[in-house]
Design brief:
This protein is about 35% helix and about 10% strand. The protein has five helices and seven strands, in the order E-E-E-E-H-H-H-H-H-E-E-E. Helix 1 crosses helix 4 and helix 4 packs antiparallel against helix 5.
Length: about 150
């Protein structure tokens, strides 16, 4: 994540793409332990939020979920709440809560659910094209579940 556009960089066969994030200074961070130089990285809670936010750019909601599931044991409810307050994006939070619940993290999902506004709008799990009529709705999250892989 960067606060301004940057070109992708290559390191051998690996290409690193940067995502521009407005308000990046609000993202909770921590010092990376045992790094050879001082390095700030986002907290696990901020990382999972951003994975959902930028899911379309990293291969879809399923790819984001498969990255999030192993991180779930590292997440703390209080820090998650801090990220939700800092970012204040209900649609992203709805998707995140749904993914957390699908991953079995019911307590963390409840933290997200408790934060959501009472009257949340229905949002697609993944960006939609075309007809919205035959997509199942997960009422708890107000999610149009257009993923064939994720179920809560």
């Amino acid at each position: 994540m960067t606060d301004r556009p940057r070109r992708a960089i290559r390191a051998g066969r690996i290409q690193v793409r940067f995502f521009v994030k407005r308000g990046i200074e609000r993202t909770p961070t921590r010092q990376l332990a045992r790094a050879p130089a001082p390095l700030c990285v986002s907290t696990p809670e901020a990382t999972v939020f951003d994975l959902i936010r930028y899911a379309a750019g990293i291969g879809g909601i399923e790819r984001a979920a498969e990255t999030i599931f192993p991180l779930l044991p590292l997440l703390r409810a209080r820090e998650l709440r801090r990220v939700l307050e800092a970012e204040h994006e209900p649609a992203v939070a709805q998707r995140l809560g749904f993914v957390m619940e699908a991953g079995g993290a019911k307590r963390l999902a409840q933290t997200v659910h408790d934060w959501l506004p009472e009257k949340a709008a229905r949002v697609p799990l993944s960006p939609l094209r075309g007809d919205r009529n035959n997509i199942p709705v997960v009422e708890r999250w107000k999610i149009l579940n257009n993923s064939s892989e994720l179920r809560s």
